[in-house]
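Lecture 7 notes: from sequence to structure.
We start with the chain below.
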Amino acid sequence: MREKLLLENGKRSLQTALDQTLAETSRLSRRLIESENALTAARARLERMDISLAAAENERATLAAARDEADERHRSEAYALNLQLEALRSRAATAEELLSQVRQTVVTHTEEVRVLERKVVEATISVEVWSVGKRSLNVPAPRSGFASRAEVHG
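Predicted structure tokens for the same chain:
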């Protein structure tokens, strides 16, 4: 009997160990399946992230090319505008110079007109004095520079 009891104890002990082993195996199997599922999900996320990264890199490259093109266009426009500005400055300087010359010419002509007006007044006075004098004395009129030119050209 004792042998039987020992056998039964051993059997129960083995059954308990087997049950524990089966439970542990089952638990490890579930964990393995969960780990494999997590790994599959992580790989899928990684693949989506790789796709997103590639799309972002393509977009960045497109934007960088557009920026470079815009920068070049801006540089070209700035260069063209600077050329136009320099041309306008040159024209403005030329216009200022011409205006200065015209002002000087106007001043010179104005002075010449004043001199001529003075000569006309002097000649008119001389003619009037001569007319008065001729009437009273019967004397020929003095010949001023302007009066003699007027007679020659008149």
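Points to note: Residues 2-153 form one domain. The first helix runs from residue 2 to 137.
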